[in-house]
């Protein structure tokens, strides 16, 4: 599970980070100290739970939460606000549907380590349930390690000499000694299709498609800078899934 802590006070951030690390070794903890820094991380990662300070030097934690809620896939993600003023939470509960809030400073009562564990445990359980229902394939990656590849975590796959480069949302790039056809046959997802002789694409993560030539398009992704090819031989299926019509043909 990935947790993003957004807190500009370094001491408070360190205190809360240490409490989380002491209790969990299966939580990937990411930290940001500003509005701008947090948005960069959110755009690059797939966060499961947010701890957000209400007051940041370059913006409001409420505004960050509103941006999160507007992003595809983040409509129901857990948001916990950090504040020294409880009255600030009325708007958060009404308009953003935050899960809970923590009162600063963290080292005095009524705040406790148990509060943190209670909150994280809820989302850990939900994360496990969600993963149990996700389709996956067991593949062998470099160094003969067996890896559980969740199908909905795939952004795209590129075939390079004798192996597949698999770009994923949560774990970056992995390499597997498989043919493109073999990997595609293992995947159970209506959104993942071949788009070129060298590429497989997950249409869920497509941001836009640019036409380059009569028989070639460039595919751009949400939160990923790499661009891949879409050839005319595979274009009909991709456009059908996306609901595109003559505008791209």
Automatic annotation (TrEMBL):
Stored InterPro entries: CheY-like_superfamily (IPR011006), LytR-like (IPR046947), LytTR_DNA-bd_dom (IPR007492), Sig_transdc_resp-reg_receiver (IPR001789)
Keyword annotations of the record: Activator, Cytoplasm, Phosphoprotein, Two-component regulatory system
Pfam families reported for this sequence: LytTR (PF04397), Response_reg (PF00072)
Superkingdom to which the source organism belongs: Bacteria
Any one Gene Ontology molecular-function term assigned to this protein's record: phosphorelay response regulator activity
Every HTH LytTR-type domain range: 166-211
Domain Response regulatory: 2-124
Residues where 4-aspartylphosphate is found: 53
Its biological purpose: Required for high-level post-exponential phase expression of a series of secreted proteins.
Protein name: Stage 0 sporulation protein A homolog
């Amino acid at each position: 599970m990935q947790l993003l802590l957004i807190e500009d006070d370094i001491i408070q951030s360190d205190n809360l980070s240490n409490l989380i690390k002491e209790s969990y070794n299966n939580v990937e903890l990411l930290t940001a100290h500003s509005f701008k820094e947090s948005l960069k991380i959110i755009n690059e990662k797939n966060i499961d739970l947010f701890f957000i300070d209400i007051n940041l030097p370059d913006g409001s934690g409420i505004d960050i939460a509103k941006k999160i809620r507007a992003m595809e896939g983040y409509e129901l993600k857990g948001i916990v606000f950090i504040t020294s003023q409880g009255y600030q939470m009325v708007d958060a509960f009404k308009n953003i549907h935050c899960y809970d809030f923590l009162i600063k400073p963290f080292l005095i009562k009524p705040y406790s380590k148990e509060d943190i564990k209670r909150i994280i445990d809820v989302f850990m359980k939900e994360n496990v349930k969600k993963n149990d229902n996700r389709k996956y394939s067991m593949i062998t990656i470099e160094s003969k390690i067996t890896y559980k590849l969740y199908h909905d975590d795939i952004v795209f796959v590129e075939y390079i000499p004798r192996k597949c480069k698999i770009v994923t949302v949560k774990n970056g790039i992995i390499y597997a000694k498989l043919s493109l056809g073999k990997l595609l046959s293992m995947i159970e997802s209506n959104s993942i299709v071949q788009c070129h002789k060298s590429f497989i694409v997950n249409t869920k993560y497509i941001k836009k498609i640019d036409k380059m030539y009569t028989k070639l398009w460039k595919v751009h992704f949400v939160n990923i800078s790499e661009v891949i090819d879409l050839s005319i031989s595979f274009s009909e299926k991709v456009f059908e899934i996306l609901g595109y019509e003559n505008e791209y043909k």
